[in-house]
Amino acid sequence: MSFNTDLASEAVDTLKSKNKSFKQYSNIKLIETSVDKNLSKQINKKQGDYYLIDISNEDTNDSESLLRVEKFITKVLKKILKKEKITNNSKGLIVGLGNLNITPDSLGPKVIDKVIVTRHLFELDKDSISEGISNVCALSPGVMGTTGIETSDIIKAIIDKISLDYIIVIDALKAYDINRINKSIQITNSGISPGSGVGNRRKELSKDILGIPVIAIGIPTVVDASSIAINSFYNLINNEQYQNLFKNYNKLNENDKTKIEQQLISNYNNNYIVSLKEIDIDIENLSEVLSGAIDHAIHF
Amino acid sequence: MSFNTDLASEAVDTLKSKNKSFKQYSNIKLIETSVDKNLSKQINKKQGDYYLIDISNEDTNDSESLLRVEKFITKVLKKILKKEKITNNSKGLIVGLGNLNITPDSLGPKVIDKVIVTRHLFELDKDSISEGISNVCALSPGVMGTTGIETSDIIKAIIDKISLDYIIVIDALKAYDINRINKSIQITNSGISPGSGVGNRRKELSKDILGIPVIAIGIPTVVDASSIAINSFYNLINNEQYQNLFKNYNKLNENDKTKIEQQLISNYNNNYIVSLKEIDIDIENLSEVLSGAIDHAIHF
Amino acid sequence: MSFNTDLASEAVDTLKSKNKSFKQYSNIKLIETSVDKNLSKQINKKQGDYYLIDISNEDTNDSESLLRVEKFITKVLKKILKKEKITNNSKGLIVGLGNLNITPDSLGPKVIDKVIVTRHLFELDKDSISEGISNVCALSPGVMGTTGIETSDIIKAIIDKISLDYIIVIDALKAYDINRINKSIQITNSGISPGSGVGNRRKELSKDILGIPVIAIGIPTVVDASSIAINSFYNLINNEQYQNLFKNYNKLNENDKTKIEQQLISNYNNNYIVSLKEIDIDIENLSEVLSGAIDHAIHF
Amino acid sequence: MSFNTDLASEAVDTLKSKNKSFKQYSNIKLIETSVDKNLSKQINKKQGDYYLIDISNEDTNDSESLLRVEKFITKVLKKILKKEKITNNSKGLIVGLGNLNITPDSLGPKVIDKVIVTRHLFELDKDSISEGISNVCALSPGVMGTTGIETSDIIKAIIDKISLDYIIVIDALKAYDINRINKSIQITNSGISPGSGVGNRRKELSKDILGIPVIAIGIPTVVDASSIAINSFYNLINNEQYQNLFKNYNKLNENDKTKIEQQLISNYNNNYIVSLKEIDIDIENLSEVLSGAIDHAIHF
């Protein structure tokens, strides 16, 4: 079964992999997926540690829930920063990918609008800076349809120009399972893989390419239309009640099944996204949560 | 086969109805659907004349294309206004339904931002008004999730308060066929039916309820996630290549087929919408086109 | 000296009035101005109780400061609601005046976007409502330049249509003193007077007109350009150093002084507003504070 | 008399300079100011050619007026591009300075949203490009308060990374005369000088610094509050009627007059801007005009 997802955790679900572990913290579930060289090829995700924070039991409209989520993300983020040897004295750049004018793709730019930046204070008025405050700047580079420039070229240019020790990238992601929309946060040290996200952001942002650690924080805000086509079909086919009706299908070999999947998704090139009707409030709240978590993880 | 659509033209496609006529005007196709009492029950759309302007052969990013579309809409709108006995001396209210913060639902409010209003000039400075300028006002009432008030209650209240002869309602609609997204304009004298649109706008705005003509202009900017589930399945089932594989299905009676459709869409309650990735530019351009067409149809 | 201000407290400053009292609560100062019939004529403000919450010693970029301010506003608001005999069982409408597209005028609409509404739940699903939750709805009617309708007509229409016990109106105000921009919150039971606010909102919203209590909450986000002209001139004239230079002026009678004031402001009709360069963040934070305070004052 | 202005034409008005010429083209006036080494020191503007297109006799709400203005700007822009030896084969970057969230400062980012970009097509699908289409990309770098990075550092980084032949910078400017707000377009080959614009954008973008031609297009959307203080005072002082009253002032030497000016503006540090009440519509229309003019000047 083919998966169109940016979540390593979902991609691994098809395999009998042992690279995945669960932990439950009251309402919040943490799923760690370690993608090694082997697994990387199988699921087409870059090598690295992937943390999926499952908040499907929290209410993204409730301020106490949101505070719990923010604290949890802060903790996971601090752990990864430490692992990547990023300290309070490291200089960071927060990058918000996506398009402010398309609601489910506006997560990144909205986080950039809210996150605290200090780099200019370090340059202009160093004495005014309290202890614990770290040197950080931020950028919403915009989407290629508006700029005509590859986002990775903009980011590389800035890294070459100003001295930086690490990058945190925020992006709206694509899930396979519609129930994950706005209900998971993926944090990884592998960067952002090519072709991921809501829009068409093609070149990867990673330590391999940029030379410094790249922590990617993503929230699935959409699924691809093709995922609906595939998912609804398998829901039917795998329903016990209809086993007999579709028994011919179940007898097919993997190759033929794949052909049928191709037929199912043939009308949905990569241009259609599925999202929640009332996504604006979630995006507003989640961008608040992410910017708060980043602020708390960086400055301490 | 069940259809989740706001377009009368699509709804009629399932029936062998004669209430539909086509005309081709260079790139633009006009489909007229006359919904009488009988057909109204069959397709669950209010009685009235429905004009579907099919612009799938025009380019919504090209200014000359957009100008042609604007002129065509103006003509259709003038015809309907005339039929409804609305003249230059009639007083109108333009209502933009939808949520400004959700891109595919922002069409209505964006038209209201752009449309010319004159009512206050008639009240405050009547002598300044050129001949041909009609008395018109406009309102974006907001969505019930933000106001807590039924939109129809707000509109009814205003009609009761200020003297009005007709209403034009703009709304983002739901199509069944994903290819119609941003590629059709439906204009009807039947008003807006309950349950239609991208959001949850429940009570109808119509002549029956409001006592004055209600012209509704809608553009399908989304399809329901369930339409993808149904449509992709039938695309597969009806493919000649797989006739044999699914022959058991084709032998089922309508009742059983409906059960299977229910199973296919069971995960997609009304909360998921499918839209184009780069919908922001279309919405911007189409709101410009609609406001221009309304201005030209009303003031002459 | 002429004052172009929406703040009763500022208007009273010219008079030797005893209708004004101060209280200091750590960083926050509360100024109560009781405007009776007599004073109303002198300062051209409607009769009523005016509370000015002076937050010039709080930092509108600091979350702890903002929380203190929110709590203080909640307390003042509760006091006024009680005085007006508004209880948990009263039905309210929150009205956000102003234009979302002009930053210093967007306060009202932004509060409406954030405030909790419950009226639709009372109508549709009464059993789901927890104890303490009050029945409240909200509206951003838009500005007359966009709607062509007087805001007061829209509000009156809705009051006539749906049963309501009180109204809370939010508006961006004009101060005389540039230092008060975003540094004061005025709350009054007198409603909103004609001609006030950033835009041209002409007809008053008050208990006299609407028949139910109207609580107005305003924050000065601009001063008029004419206030700069007047204020800078008097700053110079009243400077001891230049007493001799301008002694001829000081000998003039009030009438002649007024003529000179007219000359000073002659280039600044009502169309120019003075605001802070980086006003966007303040407006965002203050709209958050006001919506929070309203939520806490109403539901308890 | 001190001037706080970004317009060379205004700055020159204080001097008996011959570096200024006027031409009238029906409703539109063109003022050319050539700033040489000498004049540069006197008026504190960089050397270069400054074109001020005065559109105070055009109506920025009328589509025919706007079209005339767009065509005029195109012509001036073409002339400057030619002078700078920029051809159809040159590669350009359009930079929109300013803050999208503050209405009078949003001109630059809004132009970037609307301007046509082609660089990605040249990279990805060169054969699809029609003759006459030029290679151009665009960027809204954001403001330092949000990014923590000097805008000039971002632009320099990108120039170093991708091959470019010229830059066009769009910015909202500050005028001295309140009547020029949204009524002039300044185009210059001198770049953007430090300290100009609505916000605090400090480091210059110019050929000297960046090594390639920098064409700056600016529209004054604000005046500084201090300009109101100065201007209103001189309006009074220079009024014949009050010559006698202020004769002592007129006898002062320049040094003492400057002290008085300092006193007049002492309350208005650089943080207050004066703008039009209904500036949103102008900014929307003018950003449309500028993006159209740039498109037509570049691609031909």
Structure description:
Four copies of one chain form a homotetramer. The first copy, chain A, is an alpha/beta fold and about 300 residues long. Chain A starts with 7 loop residues before the first helix and ends with a helix. In chain A, about 50% of the residues are buried. The longest helix of chain A has 21 residues, at about 65-85. Helices cover about 40% and strands about 20% of the residues of chain A. The radius of gyration of chain A is 20 Å and the shape is elongated. Chain A contains twelve helices and nine strands. At the A-B interface, α9, α11 and β9 of A face α9, α11 and β9 of B.
Oligomer: homotetramer
Figure out the total of helices of chain A.
12
- Tell me the Rg of chain A in angstroms: 20 Å
Query: What gross morphology of chain A would you assign?
Result: elongated
Q: What is the percentage of strand-forming residues of chain A?
A: 15-25%
Distance between the termini of chain A: 45 Å
